[in-house]
Every structure is written in structure tokens, then in C-alpha cells.
Write a structure and sequence with these properties.
Strand content: under 5%
Largest sheet: 2 strands, antiparallel
Order of helices and strands: HHHHEHHHHHHHHHEHHHHHHH
Low-confidence stretches: 1-5
Number of strands: 2
Structural class: mainly alpha
Shape: globular
Strand order of the largest sheet: 1-2
Number of helices: 20
């Protein structure tokens, strides 16, 4: 009952509900198109996870597709069975790490400067995607849409009376009707569809683990757990959400999703920052956001290609850009200490630029932090002075 008492459904929660759509929707569309996933199952299960998470936490802790898995699926056009096996395997692995206390130990030993670096690196990556892939995707009309959206958000960001995302989404929908949407095709595809039951084989689990789960796990620990916990602490001090709770919900989602043909999911610092930046303060925004996917999946999966045009890429790119900026701003609390800022920027560059950059940045940044504070390094400094 505590979670329900902390849910609100007002204009600010509705605005905040769109704070992470620029990350999620393109990844879901990419996997559905490139890998032949069932649209109804993908959208409905994604919506179910959002609604469940919003109710459970009572805070704007959204759900995201596992990004490394999604990128590999789209790039290599892997079969859906491999994705579902990977989701189940990473759910089992994260549950083991959580129940044994290994996850909490990892979080304790990773310094704040490294966490800030992960947040900043993820923000840089999202900003790059927003600019190159989305905002510049639709020629002159798209540039105008992106420009007007940008001005609206700058003018109204933080405004509780007129939250900006609502106006931007309405503007995007109007643009879609004028330039993109075929209303006849959209209407022909309307119908009720439920998710497909799926059986995950042992071979799917092993293949998915080595092909998709291993590249994902470092990003999950650094962003989905460590950075999400820190971002929650930054935005909602004393919220009581610990690493174990985040690990449990991460695990449960991925232990359920594969059996109903749902994509693997996680929590994410960027999504949390996005929801908060656009006005959300409770889990109501996540419930609203999940309900949108439920409606799309249950009733519009037959015209999926048309329905998603309601959210034009240039508009999604601008929303994603502000989500990335909100995430990068957290670096300010280590900016005054030169060594911490150096470590944070080092980690950020590794996360953004290197293959498996999140694990490299996490390990290297933590190593540099402890080395810089060691007695041996103190002696070296003394000799150099």
C-alpha cells in the first residue's frame, strides 16, 4: 500500500512519462524489424514491466531494453530465440549476484568518481545518438520539428504548470499526421492481440549467455545497478532503495519476460534522469508510460509500423538529448577535486569510445582511484617533489 500512496497521475507525471521514450522506442522498433520479434509480445511485456516497476517502487524508476543486447541483435540480426535465452541467463546470473551479496560488494568498492564517469559517458553516448541518428534523420521538416521542440523544452523545462514534454509530444503527433501517418492503414491494423507463450531451450540459454549476456553484464552492473542507485540517491535522498532491491527487480523481469516473448529489460540511470527532468516525481509517470505500450501492443500491433510514426525521430532525438544532459550534469559534484574529475572523465571516455568500454572504464577507473590513494603512490609523489 505504501507504493500506491506515493503515486500521482497529474500533468507533470504525464509529461515525465515521455522522458525516456527517445531511448526505448527506437531500440524496440529496431529489434522488431531486424530480428522478426512479435510486436504485440514485445510491446505488451515491455508495458507490463513498466507498470509493475512503477507500482513497486513508487518512484520514477523506468524500465529499458538491455542496450548492449539490443545493439547486437540489430547489428547481427540474430534470431529471437537467442535473445530470449540471453534474457533468462542474465536474469539467473543477476539473481545469483544479488542473493550472494556479490552485487552489494561491487557497489561498495566502486568509488563515486567512477560512477559519475559512467553517468557522464552514458550521457555522451546518448547525446551522440540523439544528434546523429535522430535529430538529423528527416531533412528540413525534421530539422524544423527538432528546433521548435528544443525551444519549447528550453523555455519550459522545470515548469510545473506547463511541463514541456506534453507540448512536444503533441507537436510531434501533429507533424506525423501532416507528413508521415497513413490513418487508413493505421485503422485497418487495429485489433486485440495477446503476447505469445514461448519455450526457452537450454541451448538458447547457453548461446544467449555467451553471445549477448556476457557483453551486457558490465553495462548492467555499472548503469542499471550502480548508476541507477546513485541517481536515485541524488534525486530522492533517503529513498531507501538499495542495491539488493534493484538487483531483485532486474532479475525477476528477466526471469519472466522470455516465457512471454518479451525482450530483456533493466533499470537505467538515464531513464530515471529523463523522467525526473520532464516533471515526474512518483511512479505514476512509469505507470502511464507502460500503459502507452500496453495499448500499442494489445490494440495496434497489427499496424505497428504506422502506429509508431506518431513519435517522429527528430522529436525523440530532442527528448533524448535533454535526458543525456540531465545525466551528464551529475559530474559537477566531483568537478572540484582534480583527481576525481580526471578519473570520471577517463571512465567516461572509455565508456563512450572503447569496445566493452563500460567494463574497461569500471575496472580501470576503480584501479586508478585505489592506486592514487595508496601508500606506494604517496611515496612516489614525495620523491618527485
Amino acid at each position: 500500500m505504501q507504493a500506491f500512496s506515493r503515486l500521482r497521475f497529474d500533468r507533470n507525471e504525464l509529461s515525465g512519462a515521455f522522458g525516456d521514450i527517445g531511448t526505448d522506442l527506437p531500440l524496440l522498433i529496431g529489434m522488431i524489424v531486424a530480428c522478426g520479434l512479435d510486436p504485440a509480445s514485445t510491446l505488451v511485456m515491455f508495458g507490463v514491466m513498466q507498470v509493475g516497476t512503477g507500482l513497486w517502487y513508487g518512484l520514477p524508476v523506468p524500465v529499458q531494453p538491455l542496450k548492449a543486447m539490443a545493439a547486437l541483435m540489430i547489428a547481427q540480426q540474430l534470431p529471437a530465440a537467442t535473445l530470449y535465452g540471453a534474457g533468462l541467463s542474465i536474469g539467473i546470473l543477476m539473481l545469483a549476484l544479488t542473493l550472494t551479496g556479490s552485487l552489494e560488494w561491487l557497489v561498495r568498492v566502486i568509488p563515486k568518481a567512477v560512477i559519475r564517469g559512467v553517468q557522464f559517458g552514458l550521457g555522451l553516448s546518448l547525446a551522440t545518438i540523439a544528434t546523429k541518428n535522430y535529430i538529423l534523420s528527416d531533412a528540413v521538416p525534421g530539422y524544423i520539428l527538432a528546433g521548435v521542440s528544443f525551444i519549447i523544452i528550453v523555455a519550459l523545462l522545470g515548469n510545473r504548470k506547463f511541463p514541456p514534454a506534453l507540448l512536444v509530444i503533441l507537436l510531434g503527433a501533429a507533424y506525423a499526421v501532416a507528413f508521415k501517418l497513413d490513418l487508413v492503414s493505421l485503422g485497418h491494423g487495429i485489433g486485440f492481440t495477446l503476447p505469445r507463450i514461448n519455450v526457452v531451450s537450454f541451448s538458447d540459454i547457453t548461446t544467449g549467455f555467451f553471445v549477448l549476456a556476457l557483453p551486457q553484464i558490465a553495462l548492467s552492473i555499472s548503469n542499471s545497478v550502480v548508476a541507477t542507485k546513485q541517481t536515485l540517491q541524488d534525486l530522492f535522498p533517503g529513498n531507501g532503495v538499495g542495491v539488493k532491491r534493484i538487483g531483485i527487480t532486474y532479475s525477476l523481469m528477466n526471469l519472466v519476460n522470455p516465457w512471454f516473448s518479451g525482450v530483456p529489460t533493466c533499470h537505467g540511470a538515464g531513464g530515471l534522469a529523463g523522467h525526473y527532468s520532464f516533471g515526474a516525481r512518483t511512479g505514476g509517470s512509469v505507470v502511464i508510460y507502460g500503459s502507452i505500450y500496453l495499448v500499442l501492443g494489445l490494440f495496434f500491433s497489427g499496424s505497428f509500423g504506422e502506429a509508431v510514426k506518431v513519435f517522429p525521430l527528430p522529436m525523440l532525438g530532442v527528448i533524448l538529448l535533454f535526458e543525456s544532459l540531465a545525466l551528464m550534469m551529475f559530474i559537477k559534484d566531483v568537478a572540484q577535486e582534480r583527481s576525481d574529475l580526471f578519473i570520471a572523465l577517463l571512465v567516461a571516455l572509455a565508456c563512450m569510445a572503447l569496445p566493452n568500454g563500460y567494463v574497461i572504464g569500471l575496472v580501470a577507473g576503480t584501479g586508478v582511484h585505489y592506486l592514487a590513494g595508496s601508500a606506494w603512490m604517496a611515496r612516489v609523489r614525495a620523491k618527485l617533489q
